[in-house]
Write a structure and sequence with these properties.
Elements (H helix, E strand, L loop, with lengths): L5 E7 L3 H12 L6 E7 L6 H11 L3 E4 L6 H11 L4 E4 L5 E2 L3 H11 L3 E11 L17 H6 L13 E3 H6 L11 H9 L4 E13 L5 H4 L1 H19 L18 H4 L4 H13 L10 H11 L4 H12 L3 H11 L3
Parallel strand pairs: 1-2, 1-4, 2-3, 6-8
Antiparallel strand pairs: 4-7, 5-8, 6-7
Keywords: Transferase
Protein name: Glycosyltransferase
GO molecular function: hexosyltransferase activity
Length: 328
């Protein structure tokens, strides 16, 4: 059997309110030569029934059985089952325009030295209405992406079409980089192929309460910072100390695994992203903040934070932060 041009990959977990719209936006593509592989990671809502209903209506959909193993094993399972030379990633709570595949494949076919392309996105709320968020100007060229990769994942995961050969050559997604597996993937892909972004917004990214990108912001940011440290090791021709690991080292262990100062670097990256968020004042965020206050050379933002804490009814935390800033 002749393989399709594209294998569309979607991992689903408890996205019942949104997965139908996500699937429908794929089925409406103007480029129709694709297979659509979907893994449901034992959702406890009606996600699977929505998926099965669509599968009964369109033979391009293939639902793969999968135990409750998590997002990364699900994505790697999808890659292993794909038959096409190109893989289109799609998140189960987002949507895309009907010409997404057509335009992304046109780019890849005219830039044969590239192994992945993404695009810009619009933002929608849980009801699908436009949601305002400051525009992110992502670099379009491989050179621009590589030059700015330290700042974060510059490709929208829900909008990427990439080479199956390229992603298999680097071993797919890595489980240790929980909630930052996409950023780790782009870093490793950038070392084996060229990446690009289309300027046009061809996908819609959905923002709603409880999604992973907001619920795990501390862990996500810390793991992304560790991914950058590992990337730098590979660029320097040294072994990646996280390769083959089931879990990442704690921040306290980083200075013995990477260069001295690595732990401080990760703490700084976390604080920079979360300094005015509730997550920083609870759980693992607060100890990171105190440690960062002791070691940071740029204390001005932290003094402002202590004043905000006092103003908003957190005198004990404000005092603790001040003590850390003055060396206590």
């Amino acid at each position: 059997m002749t393989p399709p041009r594209i294998s569309v990959l979607m991992s689903v977990y408890n996205d019942g309110p949104f997965v139908g719209a996500a699937i429908d936006s794929i089925l409406a593509q103007t480029l129709t030569d694709f297979e659509f592989l979907i893994v449901d990671d034992l959702s406890t809502d009606d996600s699977l029934s929505v998926i099965q209903q669509r599968a009964e209506q369109d033979s391009r959909i293939r639902v793969l059985p999968h135990g409750k193993k998590g997002r990364v094993p699900a994505l790697n399972r999808l890659i292993s089952e794909a038959r096409a030379p190109w893989l289109a990633l799609m998140d189960s709570d987002d949507t895309c325009s009907a010409d997404r595949f057509e335009k992304e494949m046109a780019f890849l076919e005219s830039h044969q030295d590239h192994g992945a392309v993404s695009c810009n996105c619009t933002v929608i709320d849980e009801k699908g209405a436009p949601y305002w968020r400051p525009k992110i100007d992502r670099p379009l060229t491989h050179e621009g992406i590589v030059a700015n990769l330290e700042s974060g994942p510059l490709l929208n995961h829900n909008a990427v079409v990439l080479s199956r050969e390229a992603i298999q050559s680097i071993g797919g997604y890595r489980k240790a980089y929980r909630h930052a597996e996409d950023y780790d993937l782009w870093l490793r892909l950038s070392q084996v192929t060229k990446l690009a972004n289309l300027e046009e917004a061809l996908t819609s990214y959905r923002i709603y309460p409880g999604q992973v990108s907001t619920a795990h912001v501390i862990e996500q940011t810390a793991n992304a910072a560790i991914a950058w440290l590992a990337h730098c090791e590979r660029l320097a021709g040294r072994p990646d100390p996280t390769e083959g690991q089931e879990a990442l080292p704690s921040i306290e262990e980083l200075d013995t695994i990477f260069d001295p100062g690595s732990a401080a670097y990760v703490r700084r990256r976390v604080i920079e992203r979360t300094i005015y968020t509730p997550e920083l004042l609870a759980g693992q965020g607060w100890p990171l903040l105190i440690a960062h206050a002791r070691e940071s050379k740029n204390k001005a933002p932290l003094w402002r934070l202590s004043a905000r804490l006092l103003k908003h009814g957190h005198p004990a935390k404000a005092l603790r932060l001040v003590m850390a800033l003055i060396g206590g």
